[in-house]
Amino acid sequence: MRYRQIKVSGASVLFDSELIGEDCEQLFDLDWLAAHSQGARLERGKAVMFRYRDRDMVFKQYHRGGLVRHVAQRAYLYSRLRNTRMWREFRVLSRMREMGLPVPRPVAARCVSVPPLVYRGALITERIANARTVADLLTQRRLTNDEWQQLGTLIARFHLKGVYHADLNANNIMLDDSGRFYLIDFDKGEIREDLARRDADANVARLQRSLLKLRRKLPVFHYADEDWPLLEDAYRKAVAAAGGKLGSRVAEQV
Asked: Domain 131-241 maps to which CATH number in 2.40.110.10, 2.170.270.10, 2.30.110.10, 1.10.510.10?
């Protein structure tokens, strides 16, 4: 069985046995990570890059947002292990890769139950080689017309598979050196039986808002008003070519 689950030192760990073994608990140790990631600090919302067994990997610790973070920054209400955020993201990524969608490969997820009702944890994924976020890329150059169109078509491809990205923004889209786009960070993401049109449209609108926000915020950001219609038109054409239906698929268990 490729995906294995073990309990180590009171923690549950789900991992890809093709990539790592039962010693994977060490990858979640903060001292080990600091030693293997050039001393990177584990900060809220920041991914930590490290190398293990000749593979580049990314460590992400789950943090609470909003006012509740001042009380329990890394703890969440616990119901069942399969419903924890790291378990769900691991399985959503795994299922999307089976569907042929360009997302990071999940490596391991770790969850620690904190009695009586909370938990904390982290997720490790394989790093996408030679890739930069669209947000970072646009500080250096404009995307070509073809790249905007490719991105619109790709987002439609996810939506047609029923995939809902809870935070689609310019920092969660990557482009590698070969010209291939990827979507990342599927915390709270879902694969739905029926992805409603309004939710698909909200995903696309969220991306547009993030581009406009970055343009206002950064001194140099190569995003122009005429770029957006290229993405939007490609997205609409891809949906129309598929019969204009979103979510017309069998529900995936994640």
From this structure: 1.10.510.10
Classify residue 129 as exposed, middle or buried by CB count within 10 Å of its CB (0-12, 13-18, 19+): exposed
Euclidean distance between CA atoms 142 and 148, whole angstroms = 10
By three-state DSSP, how is residue 185 classified? coil
**Nearest 5 degrees, angle CA 38-CA 89-CA 54?**
35
Residues noted as catalytic: 167
CA pair distance 95, 162, nearest whole angstrom: 12
Interaxial angle between packed helices 228-241 and 197-217, expressed in degrees from 0 to 180 and rounded to the nearest 10: 160
**pLDDT given for residue 248 in this prediction:** 44
- pTM for this structure? 0.88
List the one residue out of 3, 5, 28 whose CA is nearest residue 17: 3
Model confidence pLDDT, tens digit, residues 125-167: 999 999 999 999 999 999 999 999 999 999 999 999 999 999 9
145-160 and 228-241 helices, crossing angle to 10°:
40
Eight-state DSSP code of residue 245: -
Residue 253's pLDDT band (boundaries 50, 70, 90)?
A: very low
